[in-house]
Amino acid sequence: MSETSATNTATSTTTTPTTTVSSPARLADDTSQGKTTIAASVVQKIAGIAAREISGVHSMGGGVSRAFGAIRERIPGGGTGATNIAGVQVEVGEKQAAIDLDIVVEYGASIVELARAVRRNVITAVERMTGLEVIEVNIAVNDIHLPEALDEDAMPPVQSARVE
After folding, report:
1. CB 135 within 8 A of CB 96
2. DSSP secondary structure string, the chain?
3. 27: in domain
4. Residue 76 domain flag
5. Tell me: the pLDDT tens digits for 102-152?
6. Cα(125)–Cα(148) distance, integer angstroms
């Protein structure tokens, strides 16, 4: 038992409070019967799936990340792994997680209501499945997907105006 205590002490003094997706798994549950660790990539996948479940979310990621994702999917073995989930970045600590999402919204959807629904669904899914406390979900809307009838060539040019 003293070896276990010494190992746990050494581990806790050498870990950092947060990690990015590429880092190893973090402590989510530590009991006298053992501990459970959850990889940041798991949190990333849960958040991505939960965000896509909301009606009005067309896709995830900005234009560049979506383009690279499409290229990666065509390469054998390139479409797997945590870093290939476009539009989802996570930081996972021992008991908390922070999530950043880049989304493309369907034209006509209320962005404010959509962001609330996405945030609520992501927090619920991550907390329920992992036991981690989600301290924030930041959402960046990078684009609006237009229906086939409205393509960007048919739209009138946007007039510049003063904005307060």
Report:
1. yes
2. -HHHHHHHHHHHHHS-S---TTSPPEEEEEETTEEEEE-HHHHHHHHHHHHHTSTTEEEES-HHHHHHHHHHHHSTTTT-SGGGSTTEEEEE-SSEEEEEEEEEEETTS-HHHHHHHHHHHHHHHHHHHH--EEEEEEEEEEEEEPPTTS-TTTSPPPPP----
3. yes
4. yes
5. 999 999 999 999 999 999 999 999 999 999 999 999 999 999 999 886 655
6. 32
Residue 33 domain boundaries: 19-145
Q: Residue 107: inside a domain, yes or no?
A: yes
Q: Give the count of domains, the chain.
A: 1
Q: How far apart are CA 122 and CA 51, in angstroms?
A: 6
Residue 103 covered by a domain: yes
Q: Distance (Å, rounded) from C-alpha 156 to C-alpha 46?
A: 39
Beta pairing partners, 60:
103
Q: What is this structure's pTM?
A: 0.66
Query: What is the distance between the alpha carbons of residues 37 and 30, in angstroms, rounded to a whole number?
Result: 9
Q: Any idea what the CATH number is for the domain that residue 30 is in?
A: 3.30.70.1350
In the block, tokens 């009838």 appear at 149
